[in-house]
Write a structure and sequence with these properties.
Blueprint: E1 37-45, E2 50-58, E3 63-68, E4 86-93, E5 96-98, E6 101-102, E7 109-114, E8 120-128, E9 136-137, E10 140-143, E11 151-152, E12 161-167, E13 173-175, E14 180-183, E15 187-190, E16 193-194, H1 195-198, E17 203-206, E18 208-213, E19 222-228, H2 238-255, E20 263-269, E21 276-279, E22 283-288, H3 305-312, E23 319-321, H4 338-341, H5 343-355, H6 361-376, H7 386-389, H8 392-396, H9 404-407, H10 414-430, H11 437-445, E24 455-457, H12 459-469, H13 474-482, H14 491-495, E25 498-503, H15 508-517, E26 520-522, E27 528-530, E28 536-539, H16 544-547, E29 555-559, E30 562-563, H17 566-574, E31 581-587, E32 590-596, E33 604-609, H18 616-621
Parallel strand pairs: 1-12, 19-20, 20-22, 23-24
Antiparallel strand pairs: 1-2, 2-8, 3-7, 3-11, 4-5, 4-8, 6-7, 9-10, 10-17, 12-15, 12-16, 13-17, 14-15, 18-19, 21-22, 25-33, 26-27, 27-28, 29-30, 29-31, 31-32
This protein binds zinc ion (ZN).
Zinc ion (ZN) binds near residues 279, 308, 312 and 345.
Length: about 625
């Protein structure tokens, strides 16, 4: 049937027309704020897992005022704070209750009217945590100020002074990079800092803790703040501490003098928090497993977390992508340079963990093999570039990804490692091995004479900084990698004198990665990661199992006629060169039989020297005394 779109049906009065939007929220301006915002957070109600917030804002002017609840978190590079957790909001002015009106478009904005002659605005609300947030447990409380305040629209966050204080449950001691102004039995008052600095300075409070000064006198202090769920997990040894001290020495030699007055590596030893870290200028949140110090063999994939977060003080916090920096926590960030912010931090994390002895040389090679294999198997590059993957936090945060190798997700971490390995190799190659990325790092991060004022950069400035180390078409090279649809991503490894190979035996690092994920990882053979019960967690896009019809969520019942076990599955893959892999699996309540079209054997990634080439990688990983 032919259809002709009739222009006669358009026109006002016939079809709906959009209503104009309300006036935009007042934009932040770089102007002074009079007085100090007072913020009191009561974190004692662990039973109900809620924070009670009370604020007093000095009135700046009469008339309409918008109070903003933060939405964007710089460390997640995304809009990850939800006002849905805020409840019980009451506002009063000079003791008299007033009504607020939520903005019709921005749910994080609350409008009030300030009468002439008013002096102070009082705000009260609760932040209701979800059990999965794990922000409040009997032995650990995690205070993220950016979720615990409203602030007035119209000012840059760096211009609003905040005097924060914190009420804690009895027996819990607070750790933070904030300087203490005064403390009573259950209340800590912090010296006023800007809203920008406050929201970059979380507090962790714990019942079982230990604090160790890691730095010698004469350099800005770095404290290791250990907080555990169980006293017995505070089991760091002299060897652990000396490796951490080496990490600080190697990092400062690489990146130059720090841009903090002092730094707190806040390490939680708890299985209540998912393993991972969050960076700040003057502190790092290092959420590690409870057994981090008691079971070294299980930490192979966690050994550079503290290094990663520490590097972020320079890369990400002091130097920040110009399009990521925003004047407040309610202005959208753009993530186009996360391959520098996160990618190079991940790279230096790997390198510094090796240089400081956190990982042995072999453990580092095995970790890099894992990075290389992940990157090599990212079939999604055919439609989605590394550059586009930089946008992932902006729309994927909090969303699960069914087909990770096809959809990609935050690939700027492992692909960033391979990219910067390539840049390092090119610098070494083109300077006859006289220069390296060490020289770039020193030049790029040691600017401003130890300044603590954020220094932003653009893509062009990264290229210029590289060009000053070794002249080259850096823009052309980086664009070719960022916009690539092929797998030239491993070229750098070859320039370093190494190649990715697959063997039938997993490295200890690979095996630990399987344990951490609760799977057997057959990604590089049949294209599946499977739990011990036979649940398919990951299936490689268009891999052998995919071709046989298997998808994530399927449950494998049997392998070659016998009930599923991990060992049986591995044995079947091992002998697939001569025998077929017949499985029965259940999906959507139906049972299916399939033969996985795979005729290789077990395959696990590993790095191998390219005979006769220069071993630049070993040069990169060796401890150095650069300056
Ligand atoms: Zn990071």
């Amino acid at each position: 049937m032919a259809f002709t779109f009739s222009l006669a049906a358009t026109g006002k009065g016939i079809n709906p027309q959009p209503l104009p939007y309300p006036a935009p929220i007042e934009a932040p301006r770089d102007v002074p704020f009079k007085g100090t915002l007072s913020l009191v957070v009561d974190a004692t109600d662990i039973a109900h897992k809620l924070f009670a917030v009370r604020e007093i804002l000095p009135v700046q002017a009469s008339g309409s005022l918008t109070l903003l609840y933060p939405a964007w978190e710089s460390a997640s590079h995304a809009e990850t704070i939800s006002v849905a957790n805020l409840a019980g909001l009451f506002v009063s002015i000079d003791g008299k209750s007033v009504d607020w009106q939520r903005d019709a478009v921005d749910m994080h904005a609350f409008h009030i009217n300030v009468p002439v002659g008013a002096r102070a605005i009082e705000v009260e609300f609760q932040y209701l945590t979800r059990a999965s947030d794990a922000l409040m447990t009997p032995n650990l409380v995690d205070v993220q100020w950016q979720r615990l305040l409203l602030y007035p629209a119209g000012w840059f966050a760096r211009n609003i002074p905040v005097a924060a204080s914190l009420k804690l449950p009895p027996g819990l001691k607070a750790f933070t990079s904030l300087d203490v102004d005064g403390a009573s039995d259950d209340m800590v008052a912090y010296k006023p800092v800007s809203l920008e600095a406050l929201t970059d300075s979380p507090v962790y409070a714990g019942r079982y803790w230990r604090q160790v000064k890691l730095t010698p006198d004469g350099v800005p202090t770095v404290r290791l703040d250990l907080l555990a769920d169980n006293r017995g997990d505070l089991a760091e040894t002299g060897d652990d501490l000396s490796k951490l001290r080496q990490l600080l020495v190697q990092t400062r030699q690489l990146l130059g003098p720090p841009h903090y007055a002092h730094y707190d590596a806040i390490v939680t030893l708890s299985d209540a928090f998912p393993a991972g870290g969050i960076e700040h200028l003057e502190s790092g949140e290092d959420n590690l497993p409870a057994n981090y110090f008691t079971d070294n063999a299980e930490q192979l994939n966690n050994l550079d977390l503290i290094a990663h977060e520490y590097v972020h003080s320079w890369n990400g916090k002091f130097r920040q992508p110009a399009d990521l920096w925003t004047p407040t926590l309610n202005v959208p960030m753009r993530d186009s340079l996360l391959w520098v912010y996160e990618g190079q931090t991940e790279f230096w994390g790997r390198v510094l963990a090796a240089r400081s002895g956190q990982r042995t040389r072999q453990e580092t090679l095995d970790k890099l093999a894992l990075d290389a294999a992940v990157v090599d198997a990212r079939v999604g590059r055919s439609w989605k570039t590394l550059q586009d993957s930089n946008n992932d936090p902006l729309y994927m945060a909090g969303h699960s990804v069914a087909w990770r190798d096809w959809q990609r997700r935050e690939d700027y971490y492992p692909e960033g490692v391979m990219l910067w390995l390539d840049v390092d190799a090119i610098v070494r190659e083109r300077s006859s091995d006289k220069k390296s990325l060490n020289d770039f790092a020193r030049a790029f991060f040691d600017v401003g004479n130890g300044s603590r004022i954020t220094s932003t950069y653009t893509f062009e400035q990264v290229c210029d900084a590289l060009d000053r180390i070794v002249p080259y078409d850096w823009s052309g090279f980086l664009r070719s990698r960022l916009d690539a649809h092929d797998s030239s991503v491993l070229d750098g490894l070859a320039r370093m004198g190494w190649r990715l190979v697959y063997t039938d035996t997993p490295t200890a690092t690979f095996t630990q990665d399987e344990v951490d994920s609760g799977v057997i990882d057959l990604t590089y053979s049949i294209g599946l990661s499977i739990s011990s019960k036979g649940d398919v967690r990951v299936a490689s896009w268009q891999g052998p199992a995919f071709t046989a019809g298997v998808a994530p969520g399927a449950h494998i019942i049997s392998v070659n006629g016998k009930p599923y076990t991990s060992d049986l599955m591995k044995a079947a893959v091992k002998s697939a060169t001569t025998a077929s892999i017949d499985i029965q699996y259940e999906a959507d309540g139906q049972t299916h039989a399939a033969t996985i079209p795979y005729h290789g054997t077990l395959r696990y990634p590993q790095l191998e020297r390219i005979a006769g080439s220069v071993d630049r990688l070993s040069g990169l990983l060796a401890p150095v005394n650069i300056h």
